[in-house]
Specification:
The complex is a heterodimer of chains A (89) and B (150). With 89 residues, chain A is mainly α. Chain A has three helices and no strands. Chain A has one domain. The longest helix of chain A has 30 residues. Chain A is flat. In chain B, 75% of the residues lie in helices and 0% in strands. Chain B is elongated and about 90 Å long. Classes of the chains: A mainly alpha (89), B mainly alpha (150).
């Protein structure tokens, strides 16, 4: 079960990187890198489709997503706290 | 899709939120206390202290038997699963970034020079352009002098 979750969440991470970076590269890239950006976007959408088809019916997957989102939000809050402390000083 | 899924927010979202805050405070505190000077260094030590305290509390509540928050939050098994999920997703993001960087470095990212329209540059006579600029500068100088005399 743990291995399944690790693989699923690893794929979620790769998907997020592909979608985010693909969007940026496809929009701001030069004429050559733009095509690579579109390719990354297609790969990201393909991964998303695979995850939706395979894992989203599973409670453990959504609990793992909650954990990931919680970690991300917590990290952002921590960095905001750091910035507030530095700016207010 | 099953709409009666039982999501465990208190055992997955909340502990990882607190761990995220703790790790961020620890990392920024280490950075600021090492590279900062004077007041900012003191702030760095404070951030480092709070980061260590938060992570220590999470550890004690999960593995040390301290029940600071009731209602079965910070269960050991669920916490391990949540931490594994978060680390796996972060690893996935890092792997994805490396793949993207690898592909981008393999692709020639600079546009071909053939695409540039060099005909305009060839037609440009630099000497003539310089003369025009000098004339414009001289004219502005003369105008300034006449205004000063008046």
């Amino acid at each position: 079960m743990d291995v399944d979750i690790v693989i699923s969440m690893g794929l979620v991470g790769v998907m997020l990187a592909m979608l985010g970076m693909g969007l940026l590269i496809a929009y701001y890239g030069s004429s050559k890198t733009r095509n690579v950006g579109v390719l990354f976007l297609v790969l990201g959408v393909g991964l998303a489709y695979y995850l939706v088809e395979m894992d989203t019916g599973d409670v453990a997957f959504w609990n793992s997503m909650l954990a990931f989102v919680g970690g991300m939000v917590g990290g952002m809050l921590g960095i905001i706290a750091f910035l507030v402390a530095i700016i207010k000083s | 899709m099953d709409t009666t899924l039982d999501y465990d927010v208190m055992n997955f979202f909340v502990p990882m939120l607190i761990v995220g805050i703790g790790v961020a405070l620890l990392a920024t505190g280490m950075f600021t206390s090492y590279f900062g000077a004077g007041k900012s260094q003191k702030i760095g030590f404070a951030l480092l202290f709070f980061g260590i305290v938060i992570l220590a509390l999470v550890y004690l509540m999960t593995f040390g038997g301290v029940d600071a928050i009731p209602d079965d939050t910070f269960e050991e098994d669920e916490f391990n699963e949540a931490l594994t999920s978060g680390i796996a997703a972060l690893g996935g993001v890092i792997a994805g970034m490396f793949i993207i960087l690898f592909v981008l470095m393999k692709v020639d990212s600079v546009d071909d020079l053939e695409d540039l329209d060099l005909e305009d540059l060839e037609d440009l006579d630099l000497d003539e352009e310089l003369k025009k600029l000098e004339e414009e500068l001289n004219q502005t100088d003369e105008n300034d002098n006449t205004e000063e005399e008046e």
